[in-house]
Amino acid sequence: MNDSSPASGTPVLDVWCELQCPDCRSALDDLRALRARYGDRLELRLRHFPLEKHKHAFAAAQAAEEALEQGMGWEYVEAVLGRVEELDRAGEPFLVEVARELGLDAEEFDTALVDGRHILIVDADQAEGKAIGVTGTPTYVLDGERLDGGKSQEGLRERVEQIADRLLAGQE
After folding, report:
1. In sequence order, which residues have a C-beta less than 8 Å from that of residue 155 and are 6 or more positions away?
2. Rounded CA gap, 75 and 45, in Å?
3. I want to staple 60 with a disulfide (CB 3.0 to 4.6 A). Which of 16, 19, 68, 84 is the partner?
């Protein structure tokens, strides 16, 4: 999540994600496992890469930024990804409803989606993603290595763990 600078020396795993993407939902188990294994030793940073084929993805990315601002970024991401079909059907009202269910300020979500206060962050992520070769989601970048989960997630978590373990071992 973009405004957090990593604690000195903490490896950062950029997770290029799209909240209307079924493959990103499949990746949630891997992300939970990585958080359980590494805790604070590995920073997972949400990066936005809304795909044009998903008409609510851009709004969902903005909503995720609002959730981050309200202190529940990943919880919100997981809640929305867990119900991709509802987002497909209902669009922005669903995004506000999820915020309400999580106890976030739903009115502020509604306002944020209308006033577009998070658009620049989403646009910047998307531009950076394109610049480094992200073509689909989920895509992971750790220590300069890009791992594309949009085609297959087979073995990706193991690869992330190998890189993270190497980086963390180098700190000791």
Report:
1. none
2. 13
3. 19
- pLDDT tens digits, 149-172: 777 778 889 999 999 999 999 876
How many residues belong to the chain? 172
The more confidently predicted of residues 153 and 130 is: 130
| CA–CA gap between residue 10 and residue 82 (Å, rounded) | 28
Separation CA 152–CA 90 (nearest Å)? 28
The radius of gyration computed from the CA coordinates of the chain, to the nearest angstrom, equals 16
Long-range CB contact pairs, 76-81, < 8 A, 24+: 76/102, 76/104, 77/17, 77/19, 77/46, 78/28, 80/19, 81/19, 81/21, 81/24, 81/25, 81/28
What gap in Å lies between CA 135 and CA 108, rounded to an integer? 32
29-39 average pLDDT score: 94
Strand order in the sheet with 145-148: 43-48, 12-17, 139-142, 145-148
Given a cut of 80, whether residue 57 has pLDDT beyond it is yes
Facing residues of 139 across strands? 16, 148
Residue 89 scores a pLDDT above 60: yes
